[in-house]
Amino acid sequence: MKEASKSFTSLLLSLMKSAHWDIAATVRSIEASTTTTVSTGTPATATDSIVGPNHAKYALESYVNRKIFQGFDHETFYMDGSLSSLLNPNQFRSDCFTQYRDMKSMDPIELLGILPTCQFGNFCSKKYLSIVHPKMEESLFGDLEQRRQVLAGNHPRTRFYGEFLAVAKAVWLLHLLAFSMDPPPTLFEGSRGAEFHRQFMESVVRFPGGRVAAGHVVGFPVSPGFKVGNGLIVKARVYVVPRGEL
């Protein structure tokens, strides 16, 4: 999941730079995302960004992950009103694990070429349209062709969409695996201003000696973590800053 997310974010950032986006303004927009969107690339406030030089990729990854993980706690990401997990929980968990096992080695674009409007296909379409706004796509590619294909129920065979599919598949597999467990893992993230806790969080910014320096807090979440029923913790990834910078 982490590698797919980083790869897609890196490509997206590269395309933004090629399209002459104001990256600093885009980062400020993401930081203030509760009141604005990334689609315009305009700053939400006049305040300075907490994101350091060459760290825009972390803000962008935070934006992508926030969008793609939205609805993770529901059995179909709220794409429909399905209640299979309540009506027949044992069968539902078994089906989720079977789908996880069968899909793990599949190439997502080949799968979607055969079944473009399967549940996974619908998930990909919904998340692509959520992450890549029309203004963003037109700015990056000069047209809305990929969006038109997605809206028509198809899946473009472009490098950009292929990188997106790698992230979508990783999240979909994680979702299937989670719902095959009893109880499903609990998703959590490091909230802005929260104390950094090593047992629950991993800093995306590296520090000398591998330990986050004292006095640092969460600037923003990058990707969520999970608490599994047996006590296992999958750490949330966070961007940390000195406490005084917030």
UniProtKB/TrEMBL annotation:
Lineage: Eukaryota, Viridiplantae, Streptophyta, Embryophyta, Tracheophyta
One Pfam family recorded for the sequence: GIL1_IRKI_C
Record-annotated GIL1/IRKI C-terminal domain positions: 188-239
Protein name, as recorded: GIL1/IRKI C-terminal domain-containing protein
Top-level taxon in the UniProt lineage: Eukaryota
GO biological process, one term: negative gravitropism
InterPro entries per the UniProt record, alphabetical: GIL1-like, GIL1_IRKI_C
